[in-house]
């Protein structure tokens, strides 16, 4: 039932693994029914279903649906002998919205500036705003977050265009404190093996929840399947063009005991 158009794909083999590589598909965004209520980590057991590795913690309500999703994905991969699907597993689940979230938000801001000299030149992030960047900023549109962005615009060497370019990149990669869907327990990231083909040479790597590799992930059997069918199982990404591997359970109903709104 949940099959892929294999006739449109190229078959590639490397390191003993077979992959189907598809044309880049249409992607989609979905901001409907995203989980927002933070969980109490003490109430979140480890996931032990299909595609389980390690001690990823998730909300009890999402355990069975996640197992169904991963079973369908991996079993179909076995049927068609595609390693991207067969190698899929849940890489991470619950992640607290604490100081580490703010630390990494600032780190990614600085990393984005350093890695894009054609955009930012020698401009650096204002040192007097580093504490603000690591604070609780909330989701887009909230006063704290908008005030922070305005302060960046008005800093020496910055302007509206530069700031817009910075946050267009950063906000597609990582969220600040105060807006972390992973802290709800209803969200997880998948990891799976993919190949990229550059100048005729095949490179095999684990996706590793990398937004930089998301384009190749979308052309893989695992990524295309998620892009096409995840919603049939109650899951979806906020934007498959950014993180097709990021899956949020959209049928969530019951926050965990001790959850924080």
Describe this structure as you would to a colleague.
It is a single chain. It is built from ten helices and eight strands. It is of the alpha+beta class and 261 residues long. The strands form three sheets. It has a four-stranded antiparallel sheet. The chain starts with 9 loop residues before the first strand and ends in a 12-residue tail after the last strand. 35% of the residues are buried. The mean pLDDT is 94.
Task: Provide the descriptors you would attach to this structure in a database record.
about 260 residues; alpha+beta; 10 helices; 8 strands; about 15% strand
The count of β-strands is 8
Enumerate how many helices there are, as a single number.
Answer: 10
Rg over CA atoms, rounded to whole Å, is: 20 Å
Beta-sheet strand percentage? 5-15%
Topology of helices and strands:
Layout: E1 10-14, E2 17-21, H1 60-80, H2 83-86, E3 89-92, H3 99-115, H4 117-120, H5 130-133, H6 143-153, H7 160-170, E4 187-191, E5 193-198, E6 201-206, H8 214-219, H9 221-229, E7 235-236, H10 240-243, E8 246-249
Antiparallel strand pairs: 1-2, 3-4, 4-8, 5-6, 7-8
Helix pairs in contact: 3-7, 6-7
């Amino acid at each position: 039932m949940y099959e892929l158009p294999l006739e449109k794909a190229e078959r590639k083999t490397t390191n003993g693994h077979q992959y189907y590589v598809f044309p880049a598909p249409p992607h989609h965004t979905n901001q409907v029914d995203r989980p927002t209520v933070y969980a109490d980590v003490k109430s979140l057991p480890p996931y032990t279903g299909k595609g389980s590795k390690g001690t990823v913690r998730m909300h009890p309500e999402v355990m069975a649906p996640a197992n169904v999703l991963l079973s369908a994905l991996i079993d179909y991969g076995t049927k068609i002998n595609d390693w991207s699907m067969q190698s899929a597993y849940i890489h991470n689940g619950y992640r607290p919205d604490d100081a580490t979230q703010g630390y990494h938000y600032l780190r990614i801001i600085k990393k984005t500036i350093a890695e894009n000299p054609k955009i930012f030149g020698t401009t650096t992030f204002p040192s007097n705003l580093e504490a603000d960047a690591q604070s609780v900023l909330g989701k887009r549109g909230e006063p704290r977050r908008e005030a922070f962005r305005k302060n960046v615009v008005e800093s020496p060497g910055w302007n509206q265009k530069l700031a817009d370019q910075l946050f267009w990149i950063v906000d597609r990669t990582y969220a600040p404190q105060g807006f972390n869907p992973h802290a709800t327990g209803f969200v997880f990231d998948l990891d799976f093996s993919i190949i990229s083909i550059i100048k005729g040479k095949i490179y095999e790597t684990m996706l590793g929840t990398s937004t930089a590799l998301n384009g190749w992930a979308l052309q893989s059997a695992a990524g295309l399947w998620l892009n096409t069918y995840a919603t049939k199982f109650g899951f979806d990404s906020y934007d498959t063009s950014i993180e097709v591997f990021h899956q949020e359970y959209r049928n969530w109903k019951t926050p965990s005991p001790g959850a924080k709104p």
